[in-house]
Design a protein that fits this description.
The complex is a heterodimer of chains A (314) and B (646).
Chain A: H1 2-28, H2 34-39, H3 45-55, H4 61-73, E1 79-80, E2 85-86, H5 87-122, H6 127-141, H7 144-158, H8 176-210, H9 213-220, H10 225-263, H11 268-277, H12 281-309
Antiparallel strand pairs in A: 1-2
Helix pairs in contact in A: 1-4, 1-12, 5-6, 5-8, 5-10, 5-12, 6-8, 7-8, 7-10, 8-10, 9-10, 10-11, 10-12, 11-12
Chain B: H1 12-17, H2 19-28, H3 30-47, H4 85-121, H5 123-137, H6 141-152, H7 156-182, H8 186-193, H9 198-234, H10 246-254, H11 262-289, E1 306-307, E2 324-335, E3 338-350, E4 355-359, H12 366-373, E5 382-391, E6 394-395, H13 401-407, E7 412-415, H14 419-422, H15 429-440, H16 445-458, H17 464-467, H18 477-488, E8 495-499, H19 507-524, E9 527-532, H20 535-541, E10 544-549, E11 552-558, H21 559-564, H22 569-576, E12 626-627, E13 633-634
Parallel strand pairs in B: 1-5, 4-9, 4-10, 7-8, 8-9
Antiparallel strand pairs in B: 2-3, 2-5, 5-6, 10-11, 11-13, 12-13
Helix pairs in contact in B: 3-4, 3-11, 4-5, 4-7, 4-9, 4-11, 5-7, 6-7, 7-9, 8-9, 9-10, 9-11, 10-11, 15-16, 15-18, 16-18, 18-19
The chains are: A mainly alpha (314), B alpha/beta (646).
């Protein structure tokens, strides 16, 4: 078991390495001269050349990568020229906010998705199943950024139950209750699509498992239907659903881009959108890298959970 | 939505012949049809935009800004620049549709191409392509699109490229899987041998077969791509003013959400309608093209077989007594519009310590008979259609669910055929065994463990204590079946129902298991109902035997009587099939022909079509089970060896 986890961790290293290459190459492929972009079109050629030298852009691509990755190991992702602070500081600060939002959503979508999927499978073709199936379809067809706006209109503007934006109240607040108050709407909005996907998959997985011979054995033993479904069938279904939850982590973190923009959540998604508009490419680079690494980690986590559940994978 | 479903490719001939039926099937699906109608409607309106009497979508009128819905001359009101929202909506839909479709086509083209090449070439090409795909998929989807837009710069076309690019992996993966399977098929080999080039094979032989999968993947991703391009525009990274798609309209409207919510709500509603209709339709298409998901193929069996029998038609227990007494039991399966009568009125009687064998070919209804007794036949589609099963005089088909649960694994225990699939793969042997014990005998965990070790030793599993923590896949087939038997013995069952428990095992293990069961029967005085297709097994274990054919008992008697003197031609044929050591010249070929399909049984004797002695009378009228003694009976008008009747 421990050996397997160690093996998986080692296997993640080349993936992370590949990520750095892709991120580096994407940024290197940017058309136009970064120095001109930073200094503006009125810059003198001497200044441009100097900046290029300062940025290390006069070296070969490979040398640039080696320098870049070396700096990366020292926690140096460069300096954001729009914010005038180290990229890593900004990225980490923003990322922790995103992690709170995305993590909460991931927990919500796992709970609701699994529950809805089980109910749907157990009540197959019944009313509960039909309603859940329809809700799932509506959920995965709804643009999350639009749903966010609707929720703001209803719950923040009309009912005044939740704040419309931000992470903490400006005056006072700052405690956990305040955070949850601000978190509720964006986290719910963000979890809708993933809930639908997980519910759908859980339903299919449960239906497939419930036809297995070992479920008949469980019934022949005289187990209660509750045990048959929630212990025997659910454990098997979960083995199939866990990797999907891992994949959904990517969609939730990605989807946070919209939700953070709608709810003005100070996370990495809204930071990226601003950075792309202002062409603060070092900030984009750092943000993309950190989020991608987090995604690798989530998938690794799903892998490990799956292995704990299924002894045949060890 | 973006789950990686591996889809099976419909076979070449099937996809062609089923095409007319496909459309009909699709129209039968109400949701899919309504999705299609809405989608076609939206597309038609969007296409007709230039000829519709609409205001110019880009003409600003500061005086008329932010008019509400249903304002005069502006059905859906105006936006912050006084532009007509209805007109902008329809033109925006055009743009969104065009962008979404283009992205889908681009992704499908390049993704399928990569998948085809990787799947067909295999080896290093495959590894290289798929590692690249994995690398791209290691990024969160939307993030990668953002990174690409960051490089290319904001703009509708760039957003389109970004969305198309991040969707390529889904196509490549799906198509590669199918291609890999197809490239090993005979028709591809044939094409290769006939000297066709790889390119010809790929595009003329394989592509047509992969097309349905490409269509499925397209139909499930196009909604997503429309959503995502709209999302990029919403963030201000897609369509740039004055150009507008639904997403950028929503993004502009967001700034005035509190003062004029309709400006952002309306385009969002349109995106929703568009994506929802595509998803409804796409689901319908997928259900039809992907046979695994076809309605009814995945139905959940309920905890107990449904009982549909007339209250005034319940046979009384027979006079023979015994622990298990099955009377005129009928079990049916209703599949589509046909009813399969798997068990057509079976009588069985089992006394304490007795072993009764039920013999027959596969499809004779012997397993269904065994499962019916404790309601383990899956419903749907199965149901008990008549008769009764008495356990110590208690009608099992009338018992409450609660009572049946207490009896299952308690008084009546089962051992099934394939021990690998009947044991839960994710729980240890010990967990499953102690669960069987504690379900019926409340006791502490450590006590249950002791009992489990005892049971494992009883079925002669060495190192019983260590085996408790083993998972089923870590044991051999024989060991697994011993565990199943141990589980069945956990609660001192009165009746043990064994459904081909040795069929999946090799011969030496088989005889060990039989010896074990025989010994346990003698020690514990349990009755055994032993289902098998093998007369050899019957002779080793059973006191009496009942031969089943097409859901009915055709001959019954003590094992010695039936083996020495089979009276039904079918029994005689079955006995002939048993190999005997030292008699290599014995015919081992199976009985010619197949058992009849039980949804359309012939009149008279069901075996007549395969019977060498059949006469005209055999094909008319009901033939009863003639009992010549208490135990001996045959359902045949012209029984064999009638002179030497036992």
């Amino acid at each position: 078991m421990a050996a397997y986890i160690a093996k998986r961790l080692l296997a993640a290293i080349p993936v992370l390495f590949g990520l750095t290459i892709i991120v580096f190459l994407i940024m290197a492929m940017i058309p136009g001269d970064p120095a001109t972009a930073i200094l503006g079109s009125y810059a003198t050629p001497e200044n441009v050349a100097k900046l290029n030298r300062d940025l290390g852009l006069d070296k070969t691509l490979f040398e640039q990568y080696v320098i870049w990755i070396g700096n990366l190991f020292h926690g140096d992702l460069g300096r954001s020229y729009t914010l005038n602070r180290p990229v890593l500081d900004e990225v980490m600060e923003r990322f922790s906010a995103t992690l709170i939002l995305a993590g909460t959503s991931l927990v919500l979508c796992s709970i609701f998705g699994l529950l809805a999927g089980i109910v749907s499978a157990v009540r197959q073709y019944g009313w509960a199943d039909k309603i859940i199936t329809l809700l799932v379809l509506v959920g995965i067809s709804t643009p999350s950024f639009w749903l966010g706006l609707l929720l703001i209109l209803v719950f923040a503007v009309k009912l005044r139950l939740f704040p419309a934006s931000g992470m903490y109240a400006i005056y006072g607040g700052g405690d956990l209750a305040d955070l949850i108050h601000h978190l509720t709407l964006p986290a719910l909005t963000l979890s809708v699509v993933a809930t639908g996907v997980i519910a759908r998959l859980t339903r299919t997985a449960m239906l497939e498992v419930l036809r297995q011979d070992y479920i008949r054995t469980a019934r022949a033993k005289g187990l209660s239907e509750r045990k048959v479904i929630y212990k025997h069938a659910f454990k098997s279904a979960l083995v199939g659903v866990v990797p999907v939850i891992g994949i959904q982590a990517g969609f939730v973190i990605g989807g946070a881009v919209y939700i953070e923009t709608v709810f003005q959540w100070p996370g990495i998604g809204s930071m990226l959108v601003t950075a792309i508009s202002t062409r603060d490419l070092l900030l984009v680079q750092g943000g993309v890298l950190v989020v991608a690494a987090a995604y690798v980690f989530f998938n690794l986590l799903a892998d490990v959970v799956q292995t704990i559940l299924d002894p045949r994978l060890r | 939505m973006m789950t990686d479903t591996t889809m099976s490719a419909p076979s070449k001939t099937k996809s062609k012949s089923s095409r007319p039926g496909t459309l009909a099937l699709l129209l039968n699906n109400t949701l899919a049809t309504s999705g299609l109608v809405v989608l076609v409607l939206i597309c038609l309106i969007a296409l007709a935009a230039p000829i519709l009497p609409l205001a110019d979508p880009d003409v600003t009128a500061p005086a008329d800004r932010l008019l509400p819905v249903f304002a005069e001359g502006h059905l859906l009101g105006t936006d912050h620049l006084g532009r007509d929202i209805l007109s902008r909506l329809i033109w925006g839909t055009r743009v969104s549709l065009a962008v979404g479709l283009s992205a889908t086509i681009i992704a499908a083209f390049f993704g399928s191409l990569l998948g085809l090449v990787a799947g067909y070439a295999g080896g290093r090409t495959d590894t290289l392509i798929m590692r690249g795909i994995d690398m791209v998929m290691a990024f969160p989807y939307i993030l990668l699109a953002l990174a690409i837009v960051a490089v290319l710069g904001p703009g509708l076309l760039n957003a389109l490229y970004a969305i198309a690019l991040v969707n390529i992996p889904f196509f490549a993966r799906n198509i590669r899987g199918i291609t890999l399977g197809l490239s090993r098929r005979e028709f591809v080999d044939a094409a290769r041998l006939s000297g066709k080039s790889p390119v010809q094979i790929l595009f003329l032989e394989i592509l047509p077969n992969v097309l349905p999968v490409i269509v499925i993947t397209m139909s499930t991703t196009v909604g997503w791509m429309i959503l995502e391009t709209a999302g990029l525009s919403f963030l201000g990274l897609g369509a740039q003013p004055p150009q507008a798609d639904l997403g950028s309209m929503l993004g502009e409207g967001r700034k005035i959400l509190f003062t004029a919510p309709h400006v952002s709500i309306i385009p969002g509603l349109m995106i929703f309608a568009l994506v929802m209709s595509i998803n409804l339709f796409g689901d319908g298409v997928r259900d039809i093209l992907d046979p695994r998901l076809r309605a009814g193929s995945l139905t959940r069996p309920v905890s107990r077989t449904a009982v549909h029998r007339k209250a005034d038609d319940i046979p009384a227990p027979s006079q023979k007594g015994g622990v298990l007494d099955v009377r005129q039991m009928r079990t049916e399966f209703e599949i589509g519009s046909s009813v399969y009568k798997a068990v057509g009125g079976v009588d069985l009687n089992l006394k304490e310590g007795e072993c009764l064998g039920i013999v027959g070919e596969s499809g004779s209804g012997k397993s269904v008979t065994a499962m019916s007794i404790m309601g383990l036949v899956p419903t749907p589609p199965g149901r008990i259609a008549g008769g009764a099963a008495y356990l110590d005089g208690e009608d099992l088909f009338a018992a409450s669910d609660r009572r049946i649960r207490d009896l299952r694994g308690g008084s009546v225990a089962y051992v099934f055929q394939d021990p690998l699939s009947t044991l839960h793969p994710l729980f240890t042997v010990g967990d499953q065994l102690t669960e069987a014990i504690t379900t019926h005998q409340p006791m502490s965990g450590s006590k249950a463990r002791e009992k489990a070790i005892e049971l494992l030793s009883l079925v002669r599993i060495p190192n019983a204590k260590e085996r408790l923590s083993a998972y089923p896949h870590e044991l051999s087939g024989g060991m697994r079946q011993r565990v199943c038997i141990a589980m069945a013995l956990a609660n001192d069952a009165k009746v043990l129902i064994a459904d081909e428990p040795t069929t999946a095992l090799d011969v030496t293990v088989q005889s060990q298991i039989l010896t074990l069961m025989n010994g346990l029967r003698r020690e514990r005085n349990a009755a055994i109902l032993f289902i098998t297709h093998d007369f050899g097994v019957v002779s080793a274990l059973c006191d009496r035997v009942a031969v089943m054919y097409a859901g009915r008992i055709v001959e019954t008697g003590t094992t010695e009587e039936v083996l020495a003197n089979p009276r039904h031609p079918y029994t005689a044929k079955l006995i002939e099939c048993v190999p005997v050591l030292g008699e290599p010249e014995r015919r081992l070929d199976a009985i010619e022909g197949r058992p009849p399909v039980v949804n359309n049984l012939p009149e008279g004797c069901a075996f007549a079509a395969r019977c060498p002695h059949a006469q005209a009378a055999c094909r008319a009228g009901e033939i009863g089970l003639e009992m010549s003694s208490d135990t001996r009976g045959v359902r045949c008008l012209f029984p064999l060896n009638s002179g030497a009747s036992a």
